[in-house]
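<context>
A single protein, sequence plus fold
<sample>
Here is the protein in question:
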Amino acid sequence: MDVDKVEVGTMVLDKRRDRVGEVMDATASWVYLRAFGGGREWVTALEDVEPVGVHERLRARVAEVNAARQRRP
C-alpha cells in the first residue's frame, strides 16, 4: 500500500497479525495502528496493511463489543 493512501483515522487490516486497526500515523516504511475503539498501539510495516472492507470493519466492531461486555462486572 502506498503511504499517500494511508490516512490518519482510516481503518486498515494488518495482514501479518490479521487484526484491524485505526491509523494513528504513517511514515514511508511504518504504520502506527490502534485497536478500534481504543487500546494499545502497535507498529507494522507499510506493505503489511491493506484497506478494510465491510466484513473486517464488522469483525472489529464485534470484537470491541465483546471485550466491553467482558470488562463489565
